[in-house]
Design goal:
alpha/beta, nine-stranded mixed β-sheet, four-stranded parallel β-sheet, 14 helices, 17 strands, globular, Metal_Hydrolase, hydrolase
Length: 460
């Protein structure tokens, strides 16, 4: 297919590139050619550009890389607002019986709701860790991937799995878990059907057994071998709570990080969600192996899990991105609010006011996330040759106009309006509304499916 040389020119905006030097322009321009950033810099765009199909006067705006979400559970969109005063284990026990009743129409509606909320708030690369596959409920992975494709968002499906049910000492109901062989076979089939290894891929797949307390050691070990044989990334939950640490010591005679290392689950192709309860040697192991972390501050607070040691991880060189987490533990479902919450929550920790600053928070939500997903060579910063995944945030309204520094305004101010969001060079949001989907129809369908799930769960 011939290269697309049609150009979009964006001018008169502040630009935070989040490149290696944190280059910023108080008033600059971007030139998009096809699905790539062709050039950017200070002042107006060069004269004489050919095939310019659109010019955007972005006066009063800040341009940043699109936000990258590194951890989510889309299906939870239809179980928001439940078990609101529980810690993680009690919350799981309360909700697993309901989650075990999901089916394909529910999952499709929930995925559309989750994606819509993120996309209209500046997310251009999303991921979903889906690990609940009740028997005979349809093509859940296909439904999720289809929803992302229709929304126009770059997407990684972390194909999850659980094989440790209640009878084996796990938390999920036995009818909601897979056998070891079924989980591995279905995961491999999902990778072969849907994973695109190309540099501008819109859909990728990772191998993602759920957590130490819902999967067997064999599933972890064989899952890692499968991922490396297929050349895809690995994802799971790690060190989320003190209860998990106690569980690992009781069952395996070691802490979560040592257990993960013993099963092949540390490395540059691995990222883990939460990592709240990490000691110095755990952080050193992640740094030594290049293992990434998805930091989910709102969910960690909602479930009283604790404060992850993000400043220490960054100082050690651990790759860290941000995650919404499932919306049954972060009802807002938005990533741009996590920029603010990451900064605020971490300042409650040991480093206090020196924990994170606004630019570090923006880096976590953009380049850091791209690095964690293995896509930092293609997205996560605004640089010539990178994919045209970017957001124009409006900064001249009541909410932000009196804050001189636009990055500070974006991170510490109210959630900024998204005037335009581009993914792969295609605009998917305009003036805070999706161009690729009907938000009102999505709202109705998610409400309908949430009510249907509640009725089924109540019948037991």
């Amino acid at each position: 297919m011939a290269a697309d040389h049609r150009r979009t020119v964006i001018e008169n905006c502040a630009i935070a590139t989040v490149d290696a030097k944190d280059t910023e322009y108080a008033s600059g321009h971007l030139v998009l050619a096809g699905n790539r950033i062709e050039s950017l810099g200070t002042g107006t765009a060069p004269e004489g550009l050919e095939n310019v199909v659109r010019r955007i006067d972005a006066t009063g705006h800040l341009a940043t890389p699109g936000l990258v979400n590194t951890h989510h559970h889309f299906y939870q969109w239809i179980t928001r607002g439940l078990a609101t005063d529980h810690n993680l284990f009690d919350w799981l026990v309360a909700l697993y019986p309901t989650w075990a009743r999901i089916d394909e129409p529910m999952v499709r509606a929930a995925a559309r709701g989750s994606l819509a909320m993120m996309a209209r708030g500046g997310v251009t690369t999303a991921m979903d860790h889906h690990y609940v596959f009740p028997r005979g409920t349809g093509d859940l992975s296909g439904a999720i991937i289809g929803a992302a494709r229709d929304m126009g968002v770059r997407f990684t499906l972390a194909r999850g799995s659980m094989d440790r049910g209640e009878k084996d000492g796990g938390l999920p109901p036995d009818f909601a878990v897979e056998t070891l062989d079924d989980a591995l076979a279905a995961t491999e089939e999902t990778v072969r059907r849907h994973h695109d290894a190309s540099s501008d891929a819109m859909t990728q797949v990772a191998v993602a057994p759920c957590s130490p307390f819902s999967v067997s050691t064999e599933l972890l070990r064989e899952g890692a071998e499968l991922a490396r044989r297929l050349g895809v990334r690995l994802h799971t939950h790690g060190s989320e709570t003190v209860e998990e640490e106690k569980f690992c010591h009781e069952l395996f005679g070691m802490g979560p990080t040592d257990y993960f290392e013993s099963t092949g689950w540390l490395g540059e192709d691995v990222w883990m969600a939460h990592c709240v309860h990490m000691n110095d040697s755990d952080i050193a192991a992640f740094a030594r192996t290049g293992t990434g972390v998805a930091h989910c501050p709102s969910s960690n607070a909602r479930l009283a899990a604790g404060i992850a040691r993000v400043p220490d991880m960054l100082a050690a060189g651990v790759p860290v991105g941000l995650g919404v987490d499932g919306t049954a533990s972060n009802e807002s479902g938005e990533l741009h609010t996590e920029l603010r919450n990451a900064l605020l929550v971490n300042r409650l920790g040991a480093h206090r006011e020196a924990a994170l600053n606004a630019r570090q928070a923006l880096r976590l939500g953009t380049y850091g996330g791209a690095r964690v997903l293995g896509r930092a060579g293609e997205t996560g910063s605004l640089e010539p040759g990178k994919l045209a995944d970017l957001v124009l945030w409006r900064m001249d309204t009541l909410a932000h106009a009196s804050i001189a520094d636009p990055v500070t305004a974006l991170v510490l101010g109210a959630a900024a309006p998204v005037t335009a969001s581009f993914v792969n060079g295609r605009q998917i949001v305009e003036n805070g509304r999706l161009l690729t989907a009907d938000e009102d129809e999505i709202a109705r369908s998610t409400r309908t499916e949430a009510q249907r799930l509640a009725r089924i769960a109540a019948q037991g």
